[in-house]
Amino acid sequence: MTLDLTDTELVDLSIGIEPDAPSEPFPGSVEYHSHEDGAELLAENLHGLGIEDVDAADFPDGIGLAWEEVHAITHTGTHLDAPWHYGPESGGEPAKTIDEVPLEWCRGNAVVLDFTWKEPGSEITPDELDAQLEALDHELAPGEIVLLETGADDLWGTPEYLTEFPGMSGAATKHLVEQGVKVIGTDAYGFDKPFGEMGRRYVETGDEGELWPAHFAGRDVEYCQIEKLANLDALPRRTDVPLVTFPVVVEGASAGWVRPVAMFDETLGGEGDA
């Protein structure tokens, strides 16, 4: 079916980069340059090119172009983690950086699994994934994207966003990737259980497997993960969700910002393929 964007409903599944967001442990900052600043900066740019006879006041209405200067890690806001994030190798091969991730991985049909019932700090297991798929009467296909709905995005803008969510286990991560899934997403802050819970369990047990087990599963099996999704509850269906989630290319980086968008054919009431 040909995609006609004029008849397509778009569902934005992203959280943006917000200055000093309380839900970010490493919040980004944004320096805003006004139109007046822009006139000064553009005039200075021309001066640097040897064109001295242009001043800020010479621009129409004395104003130039507005722009912003962003200081943020690539894991700020909604982003796609590349295999390089998890370690230098994945499955015995050099791990891909974000600029090496195939675009084909980042578009396709998604299935949304409901884990809003899971306790914060707990881990999602392979059996629980299978149970959710069975409830949807859905069998995974290679290349399908799996999205985990925890409801944690309701806490965005609060410090609780960093602590009140369940995470994936290493075994659950491998379980999906071994079925041909290349991209897994969550609407929570992190893919693993919360930082504090991982640290507490490690201190209690001495088991290093408690530390970022879902991430480190990517050292054995190759996949990408989307963190900080939003609005999964706004999707009109749970399976066969047409999704694009292309990352911004940052050379040699462990992640890239994404704006995942689900697309539905409005002429079919959201029931048909986009």
What would you note in describing this structure?
By secondary structure, the protein is α/β, with parallel strands linked by helices. The chain folds into two domains: 11-16 and 73-267, Putative cyclase (Glucose Oxidase, domain 1, 3-Layer(bba) Sandwich); 29-71, no CATH class. It contains five helices and 15 strands. Strands 1-15-13-7-9-11-12-4-14 form a nine-stranded mixed β-sheet, with helices on one face. The longest helix is centred in the first third of the chain and has 14 residues, at 35-48. This is Cyclase family protein. InterPro entries: KFase/CYL, KFase_sf.
Number of domains: 2
Strand order of the largest sheet: 1-15-13-7-9-11-12-4-14
Low-confidence stretches: none
Supply the CATH superfamily name of the largest domain: Putative cyclase
Which sheet architecture does the biggest sheet show? Answer: 9 strands, mixed
